[in-house]
Fold this protein.
Amino acid sequence: MLQWEMELVCIVRLLVASACGLMIGIERQSRMKGAGMKTHMMVALGSALMMLVSKYGFFDVIPVEGASVDVSRVAASIAAGIGFLGAGVIFVRRGSVVGLTTAAGLWTTTGVGMAVGSGLYLLGLVTTALMLVSQVVLRYIERRESVRVTELCVQLADSGESAPALRSWLLAEQIEVKEVHTEQKKDGTLWMTMVVVLPRRYDRSAFLRLPGEVQGILSVSA
């Protein structure tokens, strides 16, 4: 293959890898994730470039007598190096780990870029399609089957009678309380912040009834 033809093929591979990373990133950004369009596009583009360097960057060395080149080393370094980027989007919030899907998406996007960079267009495109299916369709199914967790903040005039009445109201509404944090204010009111599990298809507007149905409730936000 002529030099200019090879470079043209490489440019096409970079464009395809960027497009695949961009499509994955658009879905992630629509979910308000830390790594969005730019991150995924740059990961796919960078890994495709490094794969091309691994594949074609040593042609001037291979013909030299006594020289040996392991072209798989660059590809292996890409897979190992992306771990640092993935670790940056994983953190703990309220005792649970979040960001694992985004980190896994970044790692797989690296594979997409490597596949396209090595000329395996179909594998890269199919992997991109499967990632989008897993992140969109499976997420929809997961949300339908999972319970709804939300944070409920309630201001009480006092904790003597209001708190037991509030617990009874939540029990009647079939709302499960996971965590409770209380804070006594200088004006004598009590703020309760609760992590609650709502029943499926629960209408959150029901919380607006709390001040009228439970004596001592001053305000509610959810």
Notes: Residues 91 and 137 are 24 Å apart (CA to CA). Residues 3-145 form one domain.
